[in-house]
Write a structure and sequence with these properties.
The complex is a heterodimer of chains A (394) and B (301). By secondary structure, chain A is an alpha/beta fold. Chain A has 16 helices and ten strands. Chain B is globular.
Chain lengths: 394, 301
């Protein structure tokens, strides 16, 4: 097969490679103009609200964050009731699996003032804060949200990134604290026990979500996660680093810790309250602990992005989910902290057990121990996130 | 390129065999869809990545990034993350050796000795690929679980200490890499071993070559194209992989892929992420070209 053509094609290949390299170099100069800022303003990205004529709504949410019918998983009772009542067709998509990943998905459209095809999206508070900071989120009309005005829990009002409660309305909220598997470990009460007890070595995980893990560590070090200095952050981070270096902490996880906690591969971890309630249904040895130093309160929020042309429809949906009777039905299924006042009374009718669960309807004592992580500006966010990532290994 | 340059002249000579010029153009027309695809989905993004790796590292998402030809991004990124580079190459090299030890005999057996079981065995190699990469890696998590049968057995025979574990160790990560990329090594090897003419082996033994010598002189050289293609198909994705380290390892086993993932998605440090991507690409290319030179078969490229 060694015909003379062979060397010719090889040479051709070489010239081609060199040629395209030269092309690359020239085009590189052309591309050398950098990127424009992603900062937008709501006014600069105005879009007409077509809600009056288009009765539809695209809703992006996390998986298992909506009640489904026990007999028919494709039916969503509260959402179907909304569709029937309002006549608004809702396209419900479970396409949010990770805040950072979702940010990557919509970033180019929102930075370029393009429609994302979504009218409501549910994102965690710090990501909501980032998008609000970038001017990507539309202001809601309070007159159209009377239920929210009346029923939003006080601890979730007037948060630093949304001081007037009209940009990010909580969908569900929850706590980040400690969980342990009573089959393999004795009760754990403090973060320090979690990070130093020798019998837990190599069987502890923490969350890769910086605000949850560092919030707990800041509290355990005697600092306030809602208001701390860079030196205090470093102090708490040093404590975390000691636990990583000593091999106490096995790894940093997202939601996937729950199966390992159930199997006993890990015996204690920093965990989210809703996951632990779910695990507790199958195995009552798995317990959630509010550390003595305090817990972190987080929330997932409904946001209406720029260039969504169904804002009024979205407002109708948000208002609907702040009806205590609807909120109770939803909370009975998702088991996170319900942000709606009055839902507890409604829950008594559905499931009295759940109505008495402080991880779904927290009492004053628990709420007084909970903190929301400080709102960070872009520079702080990058600095803290980089330091944290270095400790957790990436 | 040169042929394209001829086009206007041939078009300018009306009588000079238009059929020939059309047939000369044909290969380029056939290339067009593929080339356009490569340009849009490979060359342009690569170009953008190259530009991003030279952006001002002081830029930010809200203000944008200015092009400052910041070549310093490269040494800075390398200095911060060289252990991850070393780890990536070490893990995938060990995995490659393990995969070769398993994969070569397997491919040989399927190609030469399997008889009527050949198709079934091939399906057995390929079938796991029908499920998602993620699901297969998660399955290993169950297999290696601290309270699973395997770890229990190893503890009973004292190969592992009473508190020993497999999950969340370098061992688990290398094992995951070996398993997940094994078919990429086996299939090309199988393809070239299948074409091996068994009469050549007979001839070798007729000429008093020992089986080992026959393997060295006949089987191995003839399977070289498959071996090289297989090792490259294995090594390149294994080095850049981050799923195995993420799911089966701990932060101490994180590879360069995990760092790039975090630079782009978590830390939002685009210049650094892009610089690390290019460093990884350059390192892999250097290794591949060095390897091909050494192996002396450019035919596979």
């Amino acid at each position: 097969m060694r015909s003379p053509h062979r060397s010719l094609t090889r040479r051709g290949l070489l010239t081609g490679t060199l040629g395209s390299a030269a092309l690359l170099a020239t085009a590189g100069t052309l591309a050398g103009c950098g990127t424009k800022g992603a900062q937008q303003t709501e006014a600069g990205c105005k879009s007409d609200d077509l809600s009056a004529t288009e009765k539809k709504l695209a809703f992006s949410n996390w998986p298992q964050y909506m009640d489904v019918d026990e007999k028919d998983e494709s039916k969503r009772p509260t959402l179907d009731a909304f569709v029937a009542k309002s006549g608004i067709q809702v396209t419900y998509t479970e396409d949010v699996n990770d805040n950072n990943e979702f940010f990557g998905k919509v970033q180019n459209q929102l930075a370029g003032c393009q429609p994302t095809g979504r009218d409501v999206m549910v994102l965690t508070d710090w990501m909501a804060a980032r998008m609000i900071r970038l001017g990507w989120i539309q202001k809601l009309d309070k007159a159209k949200l009377p239920n929210v005005e009346a029923n939003l829990l006080p601890s979730l009002r007037n948060r630093p990134f949304d001081s007037d409660n009209q940009l990010a309305i909580p969908w569900q909220s929850g706590l980040a604290g400690i969980a342990y598997n009573g089959k393999h470990a004795k009760e754990i009460r403090t973060v320090d026990e979690l990070l130093t007890k020798p019998e837990l070595k190599g069987k502890v995980t923490a969350l890769s979500e910086m605000r949850d893990t560092m919030g707990l560590l800041l509290q355990a070090s005697g600092h306030d996660p809602a208001n701390f200095t860079a030196a205090q952050f470093d102090d708490a981070l040093a404590k975390l680093k000691r636990a990583v270096d000593s091999g106490q902490i096995r790894k940093f996880t997202g939601n996937e810790y729950s199966t390992e906690l159930a199997k006993g591969d890990i015996v204690a971890c920093i965990a989210w309250s809703g996951d632990v309630i779910q695990l507790g249904f199958d195995d009552d040895k798995i317990k959630f602990v509010v550390p003595e130093s305090g817990v972190m309160l987080w929330s997932d929020n409904m946001l209406v992005p720029n260039r969504s042309s169904h804002k009024a429809n979205a407002e109708e949906l948000i208002n609907y989910y702040y009806d205590p009777a609807v909120a109770a039905k939803l909370a009975a299924y998702v088991n996170y902290i319900c942000p709606v006042k009055g839902a507890q009374a409604e829950m008594e009718k559905i499931d009295p057990d759940l109505a008495g669960n402080p991880l779904i309807f927290p009492d004053e004592a628990m709420l007084s121990k909970s903190k929301v992580f400080m709102a960070l500006d872009e520079k702080q966010e990058k600095e803290y996130e980089t330091k944290f990532q270095q400790v957790i290994g990436a | 390129m040169t042929a394209l340059a001829h086009v206007p002249t041939s078009a300018g000579e009306p009588a000079a065999a238009p059929r020939r010029s059309r047939s000369r153009l044909l290969p380029y027309l056939l290339l067009l869809p593929g080339a356009a695809w490569l340009l849009i989905f490979f060359a342009l993004p690569l170009l953008q990545l190259a530009a991003a790796s030279l952006y001002d590292p002081g830029g930010s998402l809200s203000t944008g990034y200015a092009m400052t030809w910041a070549f310093d991004n490269y040494p800075a990124a390398l200095q911060a993350y060289w252990p991850h580079f070393v780890r990536s190459f070490a893990y995938s090299a060990i995995a490659l050796v393990l995969a070769l030890l398993m994969g070569y005999p397997l491919a040989y057996a399927i190609a030469q000795k399997a008889g009527r079981w050949k198709n079934l065995l091939l399906v057995a190699v390929v079938a796991p690929q029908f499920t998602s990469f993620l699901v297969r890696t998660l399955a290993w998590k169950t297999i290696l679980s601290d309270n699973g049968a395997l770890v229990g057995l190893l503890r009973d025979v004292h190969l592992l200490g009473p508190d020993g574990r497999l999950l969340a160790t370098p061992f688990a990560v290398v094992l995951g890499l070996t398993y997940n990329f094994l078919p990429f090594l086996v299939l090309p090897l199988y393809a070239s071993l299948e074409r091996l003419d068994s009469r050549l082996l007979e001839a070798a033994s007729d000429l008093y070559a020992s089986p080992l010598r026959a393997f060295q002189k006949v089987t191995l050289p003839l399977s070289m194209p498959g071996l090289i293609a297989g090792t490259l198909l294995f090594f390149i994705p294994a080095t850049g992989d981050y799923i195995n380290a993420e799911l089966l390892g701990t932060p101490n086993e994180y590879m360069i892929g995990n760092v790039i993932d975090s630079a782009f998605l978590v830390r939002l440090d685009y210049p650094q992420g892009a610089a690390l991507s290019f460093l990884l690409m350059a390192a892999i290319l250097a290794i591949v070209f060095g390897y091909l030179r050494k192996a002396g078969t450019e035919e596979v490229l």
